[in-house]
Structure formats: structure tokens, C-alpha cells
Amino acid sequence: MIKAVVVSIVIYFFFSNVIFAQDPACKDKLKNILPMEECCDMPDLLDEKMVIPIIADLEKKYNNTPLLLECLIDQEIMKKIGLEKIEKASAKKLAQGLLKGSPWLAPIEAAIDECVDRIPKFAPVYQKSYNLPKEKCDAQYAFFNDCIESVAFSKCLPQNWTTSEKCEITKKFVVECQNDEAMIKFTDMQRNFF
To answer: Which residues contact 190 (CB under 8 A, 6 or more apart)?
Structure first.
């Protein structure tokens, strides 16, 4: 647990100094943000019964290496649901199966389009932040997962939105600091809420 906290602090300072040096307008906007789940009731895109055994198995093997564990969880889950190669068509097919008839389908499909397009440029940034060789764990899966969640959050449906000042601050950050470096920092902070 202490290692995870230390690693989170290191990542926080890495992103604060390297990434926000490129985007000073977003540097101070991360104050008072909330976990996305507190502001927007988004649909579950993964089956908990499938996810829990994957996480439990990986925790047994990699509990002492939190960054590798975090990266592998996203990688193995994406592969398990058929996204070994992340493509718009296959990701949308999965979303359509999960969200058939849901008003969330259109925002999730828009997020898929946006996030798949970002992978070539920003998965390497994620890879560098994990400080892992791609052969050990491919961070494109973590990027895709985090990107989908952030973009969907920015398009939260009114009926799923919690109206509060801090939620508005959180959403404003996602909308106004939509550059990918800022979003990487935001999603890293979201992971550290739990």
C-alpha cells in the first residue's frame, strides 16, 4: 500500500511538472475536482463477474509492482472482451451489445471514435508514464479505457448528472482542458481516488 502511494506521488509530480509545463492554463484547474462517479451516473461497460477474477489473479502475481499491475489489469480486460486490437468497429460492436436502446450509446460511440484516433499519439505518453517496456504491458489499453471514461463524462446526459459546484468544476476541467496531456493527468487523479 505504501508503495502504491509513493508511486502515485511520483506520477503526480511527473505529470504536474512535465505535462502542465506545456499547458499552464490547466495547471491550477485540478483543484476541487471530484471522482467522475460522484458527478455522472455512467453505465457499466464491463461485466463485474468477468472483471473480478482477472483482477484477483493479477493481484496475486503483481501486487508488489503497482504500476505493472494497473497496466496489466486494463490490458487483460480489454483482451478478454475481444479488443486485443483496438479498432472503432469492434469497440462500437461491443458498446452496441451492451447499450442497445440506451441513450448512452451515442455518447459512448462518439467517445470510441475520439479515443481510437488519439491512441497513436498518446498511448506512448501513457507507456512512458508507466515506465514499462511495451513487451511487458501495452499501455494503449489503459489509455483507451481512461479516454473513454473521460470523454463519456464530458458528454454526460442531463438525467445522469449531479448538479453541484464541484461537479461543474470537474466537468469544466474536462471540457476546457481537453488537450490529451491534461486528460492523462485527470484520469491518473481519478484512479487515485480509489
So the answer is: 35, 36, 146, 149, 150
Helix count (H) and strand count (E) of the chain? 10, 0
pTM of the model: 0.79
Range of the domain at 78: 2-192
* Percent helix, strand and coil across the chain, each to the nearest 5: 70, 0, 25
**CATH number of 15's domain:** 1.10.238
- How confident is residue 185, by pLDDT bands cut at 50, 70 and 90? low
User: What's phi and psi for 45, nearest 5 deg?
Assistant: -105, 0
State yes or no: pLDDT of 93 exceeds 50: yes
CA torsion sign, 141 to 142 to 143 to 149? positive
Question: Do 88 and 113 meet the contact criterion of CB atoms below 8 Å apart?
Answer: yes
| Residues forming a β-bridge with 161 | 40
Residue 27 pLDDT greater than 50, yes or no: yes
How many structural domains are present in the chain? 1
Hey, is 43 helix, strand or coil?
coil
